[in-house]
């Protein structure tokens, strides 16, 4: 259990098929393997994050994120423990399809998720939110509740298509709902080292978004494609696969980056109180 607020990261891209759910599941599993208590929150009505972790959709009546957002059920009542120690999930199902319409007349509809998370924040080190491939009210709720957002980008010709709309939405959320929201980073996914176009696209993305792209790259990997059908994260399906190694590497990057930020914040606080500052290189 954490003695501080968790890092809340929204994984989003309005393009479908770029590896959002795969990233949420396997980054979450990798963080848990690093002894970081992690909660996955599925805001996609398809509910694939849950099924990818072995959650039976037929058993979810009254126990999904829909029941929290629309029916104001407590978040703690819908959390499900997974097969991997330290990894929990709040699942979703097709009930969530109508949530945006049902919430449209509600007061403070953009902050429903943020408020509902408050009771369980002390329980976790990281919370990862899987968004639908759209920029509607569910994604706005996710961004409003988050510290940062992570954008998976497939290494293909149209990789950056539609990204300007996401950037615009983030700007609006930043201005009106969540001024602390920052970018966690851009993650290159489905990288095929044998494909020259993949190398070209990856180079262009790194050039265009200098300093914003993770060093870790997620390969196009058969084992990563297979593990959801077995209801397991890649670490429990084939820990020695390239896919497993890449997500462990990503988790290490994120942990190191956020621990440096935490230490730097503490350093500043100590200086402000006149205490001896920590010696940290950032």
Radius of gyration: 19 Å
Shape descriptor reads globular
**Number of domain units:** 1
Helix content: 25-40%
Task: Itemize the secondary structure elements and their pairings.
Blueprint: E1 7-11, H1 20-33, E2 38-42, H2 48-51, H3 65-69, E3 80-81, E4 87-90, H4 99-103, H5 112-117, E5 126-130, H6 137-145, E6 148-154, H7 163-176, E7 182-191, H8 196-208, E8 213-219, H9 222-226, H10 234-237, H11 242-272
Parallel strand pairs: 1-5, 1-6, 2-4, 2-5, 6-7, 7-8
Antiparallel strand pairs: 3-4
Structural notes for this entry:
The structure is a single chain. The protein has one domain: P-loop containing nucleotide triphosphate hydrolases (Rossmann fold, 3-Layer(aba) Sandwich). It contains eleven helices and eight strands. It has helices at residues 20-33, 48-51, 65-69, 99-103, 112-117, 137-145, 163-176, 196-208, 222-226, 234-237, 242-272, and strands spanning 7-11, 38-42, 80-81, 87-90, 126-130, 148-154, 182-191, 213-219. α7 (163-176) links the parallel β6 (148-154) and β7 (182-191). α1 packs across α11 (242-272). It is globular, with a radius of gyration of 19 Å. The chain starts with 6 loop residues before the first strand and ends in a 10-residue tail after the last helix.
Quick synopsis:
With 282 residues, this protein is α/β, with parallel strands linked by helices. It has 11 helices and 8 strands.
Highlighted features:
single chain, alpha/beta, disordered C terminus, 282 residues, 16% strand
